[in-house]
């Protein structure tokens, strides 16, 4: 019986990258097979490189359209039991790194010395369900729902919209063995979040991207679209972010609060460089309202959700832990966010 491997890659769509995938059928007398819920039965070498049409993914011209997909991470496929999801990096036909391959940026920073810091990341990925009318799921056909407030971490009809997709997605990402640490409903109707990590600077973004694919694929079955837009509903509604939690071994050691504060200062000195990779239309979300700091300024503070960076209260009290940069948009590329954080905090240019 053949093995089905769903090859997933990140395309070259301008402003906000999209996910693409296609199915490879693998056969062979000695082909190892997976067991649902495990990551060790099929080595990554089982999955060969594969080609794709880059001219249809905004990654090549038609007269030289071949791109190469190189597997870098595999996990059980929760839609096809016993098969696999395979995340790939994109390379040019001559073997060089493709310009859209942002995972390579993280590899380069690690090779430059950031690996010595034993950095850990966690991402809080918000997303919004969208109805056929292109409004957030749960918004009435005419007008708006009651103001935000009763929807966050709530329960009950009239407060929660899209429960079936949310629950199904929860089961699917856990079946895939991804490093998911939590789920919750957010402050706007039809808006929710999942958390990934803590994990290394390659592993954590890998799991975010695969979880995004599973989320979109799950919502397909319900005829509901998912958007990572930073401001899916204009007006007095929270936007959608992807807060990044970050620490180094020094920050996690006793007295690490000094290293955390030093990192905050360094990040503030690179305010625009960080915003440049924190997602499309961050200006619409980072207004200074709705639990954000304005993109025009930079502040950090303890337990301050209106600051650019929040130092959790327990971290300040214990003197060790991590920081939370609240500025990345939901549509940001976690590889770019991780690479920029490592460059800044580790002093790598």
* Gyration radius, rounded: 20 Å
Strand content: 15-25%
CATH topology (fold) name of the largest domain: Creatine Kinase, Chain A, domain 2
User: What is the domain tally?
Assistant: 2
CATH superfamily of the largest domain: Glutamine synthetase/guanido kinase, catalytic domain
- The level of helicity is 10-25%
- In the CATH scheme, the class of the largest domain would be Alpha Beta
Give the helix/strand class.
alpha+beta
Measured between the Cα atoms of the first and last residue, the distance is 49 Å
- The number of helices is 9
Low-confidence stretches: 34-40
The name of the CATH architecture of the largest domain is: 2-Layer Sandwich
Backbone shape: globular
Mean pLDDT: 93
Write up this protein.
The N and C termini lie far apart (49 Å). Helices cover 24% and strands 24% of the residues. The protein is globular. The protein has 2 domains: 99 residues, Glutamine synthetase, N-terminal domain (Ubiquitin-like (UB roll)); 237 residues, Glutamine synthetase/guanido kinase, catalytic domain (Creatine Kinase, Chain A, domain 2), CATH 3.30.590.10. A hairpin with a 5-residue loop joins β7 and β8. About 2% of the residues have low confidence. α1 runs parallel beside α9 and α2 packs across α3. By secondary structure, it is α+β, with helices and mostly antiparallel strands. The strands form 2 sheets. Strands 6, 7, 8, 9, 10, 11, 12 and 13 form an 8-stranded mixed sheet that branches.
